[in-house]
Each structure stands twice: as structure tokens, then as C-alpha cells.
UniProtKB/TrEMBL annotation:
Domain named HTH merR-type: residues: 1-72
SMART domains hit by this protein: HTH_MERR
Keyword Transcription regulation attributed: no
Descriptive protein name: MerR family transcriptional regulator
Gene3D superfamilies named in the record: 1.10.1660.10
Pfam families reported in the protein's UniProt record: MerR_1
Top-rank taxon: Bacteria
PROSITE patterns: HTH_MERR_1, HTH_MERR_2
Tagged with keyword DNA-binding: yes
Keywords: DNA-binding
Amino acid sequence: MQLSIGQVAERTGLSVHALRFYEKEGILAHQVHRGPGGRRVYTQQDIDWLRMCIMLRMSGMPVPEIRRYTELVREGDGNELQRLDILKEHQERVRQQMVQLQECMDLITRKVGIYQDYVNSIASKAVGQ
């Protein structure tokens, strides 16, 4: 399957500009092939890789770290321990971030409850008048 940059943008949710940026930054696992007229031609494998990179970015992995991981993948077998280290370090950062976010959610939920109780009490008093 061969896809245009526009089709890949639709399937991944990335803009055409972001796709070009990812290519320029060396984030794609494989070099993007060019079709007639020099247009980029992507494969399903490229889309799968981009989706993983999107998830890594959404979870806070910096572009240079994604690039390093990509470089290791491109190098092939023999560096799996390094890849594992990158992912485990990121996994721990995400785990810590989730703990912090849960603390934030707990605080917000308490505050919402306080304000909701207050607003409900005012509404009850207004109805009773």
C-alpha cells in the first residue's frame, strides 16, 4: 500500500507540516520513498511507526529521545538493551506523571464537590423563599 503525505496526515492526525518535520528530524524508522515527481510515498509500516511516535510524544518523550530510539531501531539487532533502557526510563517518567496527575485530579474533585455543595445549598434556599 502506498500513501500520499495527505493520506498519512488524515490517518495519523498529524499535519503535513508535522510529517515533514518528523522526517527532517530523523524520527521516521525508514527513509520515506519518493514517487514520480518527487512526492513522498508512505507505507502502512510508516503509519504504524508514526502512531507509536505520536504516543511517545503525547506521553512527554522529547523529540531528541525519540530520535535516539529511532536511530537504534535503524541500526538493527544488537542494541535492544539500549532501546529497553530508553523505554523503561520513559515508562518511569510517565508513571510519576500519572501519580502527580492523580493528585491534581483528587484536589480538583474535592474543590468541585465543595463548590457544587455550595451552589446546591444556595439553590435550595432560593427555592424555599
